[in-house]
Each structure stands twice: as structure tokens, then as C-alpha cells.
Amino acid sequence: MNAEPDEERLHPDDLIALLKALRDDLDNRASSLRAGANVPSGGISFGKRVGEGTSIAIERFADVAIHDQIIQQLAAVDAALVRVAEGHYGVCEVCRHRIAAERLDAIPWAATCVSCA
Ligand SMILES: [Zn+2]
How far does the centroid of ligand 1 lie from the alpha carbon of residue 11, in Å? Predict the structure, then answer.
């Protein structure tokens, strides 16, 4: 409970904690996807029924796509942590204007303002 005057933005420490928590969460999701890809549930017996193998392959494909998205998001969160450290977090990388607080609330790793996104 701190009684500081109304701050629109998070304190940098809180922001770092938030971004790191996000990062951990993404990391865990990526790891479990990787684990799932290595150890398929129940083991795959290809050739039993063509349809089975195909649907597993499609699932695997979806997992890989999700994994890629998570890795991209991880990179974005990492970049946001760097911006916090360098003191230009919340500044649009394109137009150099402040990114709206509502946008940062929704997407804490946003690197651009709404107009430049
Ligand atoms: Zn911009």
C-alpha cells in the first residue's frame, strides 16, 4: 500500500516484475509445448490408421505455430525489459511519441503506439 500521488504508469520495479512474470509464463508454455512435442501422449503408432497419424501431425503443426508465436512474444517481452532498463519504455519506436497508457496496460510489451502498430 503506498500512498503516492496518482501515477498513470507503473513504477519501473513493478513493470519489470510484471514483464518478468510474463516472460516466465511464456517460457513455461514454450517448454511444455516442447515437452509435448517430444513425448506424444500415449506414443504414436504411425501406419495404424492413416487418419490418426495425420491428425497428430496437424496437432503437432499447430503446436509448432503456437510455439513460434510464444517465442516471438518472449523476444518482444525481452525487448521491453531492455527498454525499461534503458529508460525509454513506453516510447513508440517509430514516431517517438508516448504510447498511450491504456495500450501499455493491454500490451505491456508494445513497442509502437496505436497509429504506428
Ligand atoms: Zn508511433
Answer: 22
Mean pLDDT, the chain, whole residue set: 83
Give dist(CA 63, CA 44) in Å, integer.
16
Q: How far is the centre of ligand 1, averaged over its atoms, from the C-alpha of 52 (Å)?
A: 48
**pTM of the complete model beyond 0.85:** no
Q: Residues 22, 109: contact at Cβ < 8 Å?
A: yes
Instruction: Give distance in angstroms: CA of 59 to centre of ligand 1.
Output: 37
pLDDT at 11: 85
46 CA to centre of ligand 1 in angstroms: 50
